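Subject: sequence -> structure tokens, single chain

Hey, anyone have a minute? Need the predicted structure for the following. Not urgent.
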Amino acid sequence: MPLDDASPARVPLADVTPAIALGPLDGRYRPTVAPLVDHLSEAALNRARIEVEVEWVIHLTSHAVVPGAPELAPDEEQYLRDVVATFGADEIAELAEIERTTVHDVKAVEYFIKRRIAAAPDALRADTVLPQVNELVHFALTSEDVNNLSYALMVRGAVREVWFPAAVALTDEVAALAAQHASVPMLALTHGQPATPTTLGKELAVLAHRLRRQLRRIEGDEYLGKLNGATGTYGAHLAAVPDADWQMVSRTFVEHLGLTWNPLTTQIESHDWQAELYADVARFNRVLHNLATDVWTYISRGVFTQIPVAGATGSSTMPHKVNPIRFENAEANLEISSALLDTLASTLVTSRLQRDLTDSTTQRNIGPAFGHSLLAMDNVRRGLRGLAVDEAMLARELDGNWEVLGEAVQSAMRAAAVAGVPGMENPYERLKELTRGHRLTAQDMRVFVDSLGLPADVTERLRNLSPGSYTGLAASLVAHLE
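Reply:
Had a minute. Here:
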């Protein structure tokens, strides 16, 4: 019987308590990405807004910017900062209730802080001067003055305190595996075909080196902020207090927050720094994606074996399977993260004339972009920890591909020809005829080497060469990671 409108009614899952997450980051994968909630959630955005507004009041009063404003005592400054520190479930609910009236998120933050200032005489002391600075909350600010600084603080915190440490830890684990297997010879594959042997450690070191290079870029990225009014002109600031050096006030405030001051903007900070950061993180993602696909392929080839987890199921029907799901999960999440980061980077740098609102919705997806990357890193780390190297398999594969020594022999012939040894004509072509499309044994290669008429020391060196020893400087190259 086909499903149709007459199907039995079902329980509306949207009404279930506690609420069911729509997305996997807030559902299935919540434990892994939870640290980002403290930085990139809607609640974190509002807490950052409160922090910016509070610090602005303290900055104006401590620098005597507005004539007549009292200087705050240390306990009064602490009282304001405690509004940020104690922002939790009850305050989130209260702020949401205010916003239902204001229908404006930043205005709701302003009113929330003013409630706390109004309560200061009862909560702090009767003679507090805090009520006198009530109108310095959101003084001469536009919403974007608050928002751009809030997002800069949020993203900086998320990167430095959560994402970056996880990325460094992952990269260090890859580097450690590279060092551990620096001398393990392995047949290389170029275009999927047997090629000059390498070592497993050297190939892992290449990936660790690439990841670390991106981390250096990310570590050096700037976080910009601005505070200059509705169209970036300090118009309201000068109208209210014409004698203040508003550019200096703005710069010192932005730098007080630990951000880089942007002196030239429209109503919004131009978001170029975000585009630069997200491009760097996306590039890190893509290098990590390359690692995931390479490791997946090594598992498929038998280079790595997976250590079974007790009680785990690899396939619902094939009990023998141990699937490389950690690396497949990582691939998918890295692709989602990179797509989101690409969209953020490409759209945030454009705002019509002096301001449009497209960045408001766009920036609310910064959390998922970093969340999928963080989830991918967790999967890669867990996957790497469940691997073992099958060195016997690698040795068998190398021993079955003696033809890869053709490169070494023809290169030695070229060097001998330059040194004046006769009979070294057409070395590449002669090795091509011998090896291309043919499987050679150790004996086949040694007979050919003996027939060339090379100097005795060269002949001996080539006779002693095997696919397993033809790895050049691969093992020592891993030291570049130190």
